UniProtKB/TrEMBL annotation:
Transmembrane segments: none
Family the UniProt entry places it in: Belongs to the GINS2/PSF2 family.
Signal peptide: none
Protein name: DNA replication complex GINS protein PSF2
Pfam families in UniProt: PSF2_N, Sld5
Gene: LOC18586086
GO CC terms of this entry: nuclear chromosome
Domain DNA replication complex GINS protein PSF2 N-terminal span(s) in chain numbering: 14-71
Length: 209
């Protein structure tokens, strides 16, 4: 699988996580008439001027680049809501506020391709960066308190945050199990190295939609 060539870094690259986020639905307001579009992932449209409709993020970006629509930012991206989320993150050191699983990737795509559609864009971007920084710090603090267990539960993590901690937690659990039962646990690093050599010998294929 792409992104697994080195078991000591994140499972997926930032670009691969963003690619997965592009399937999230978002609302657009077309400025043209167009028949429904039929894809493997579903049918979208018909498109009528000034009539809002939902499409995948990748399609919204493609139409936006061609000047065919405006993109409506999701409600959670309002300054008022993000301010409340940031306050909640700072007030609660042991819990994470509920945000979309791909909030980092969705906001980055909108900042890159639809900044003119985002009210108070610079304030929104600053708030999201602050929220992300606070949450990453809380993830790091949670990992410092980590102890061996058969399961790790941290509610409301985003894709980016899960991607950061997954390799660490996996290796930590293996270390705990190996310490308790050394004869039953295989050498994970050796096995990972073997998989890395196999993965490196296989040609990388470009991501396709």
């Amino acid at each position: 699988m792409a992104g697994q060539s080195d078991p000591h870094i994140s499972l997926f690259s930032a670009e691969e996580v963003e690619f997965m986020a592009e399937d999230e639905l978002i609302e657009i307001v077309p400025n043209m008439r167009m028949d429904p579009l039929n894809f493997i992932c579903g049918d979208f449209g018909p498109f009528l001027p000034q009539i809002a409709t939902q499409v995948p993020m990748w399609l919204a970006v493609a139409l936006k680049k061609r000047g065919k629509c405006a993109i409506r930012p999701p409600l959670w991206m309002s300054v008022e809501n993000l301010t409340k989320v940031l306050e909640g993150e700072r007030d609660s050191q042991g819990a994470f506020q509920a945000l979309p699983f791909h909030y980092v990737e969705i906001s980055r795509l909108l900042f890159d391709h639809a900044r003119d559609d985002i009210p108070d864009m610079y304030m929104v971007r600053s708030l999201i960066e602050d929220i992300r920084d606070v949450r990453v710090h809380k993830v790091e603090t949670s990992l410092e308190k980590f102890s061996g267990t058969s399961a790790v539960k941290i509610p409301n993590l985003s894709a980016m945050e899960v991607n950061i901690i997954r390799p660490f937690v996996g290796r930590a659990l293996q270390a705990f199990y190996k310490h308790d039962n050394p004869e039953k646990i295989p050498d994970v690093d050796r096995a990972s190295s073997g998989q890395t050599r196999v993965a490196n010998n296989e040609p990388r294929r470009p991501l396709r939609r």
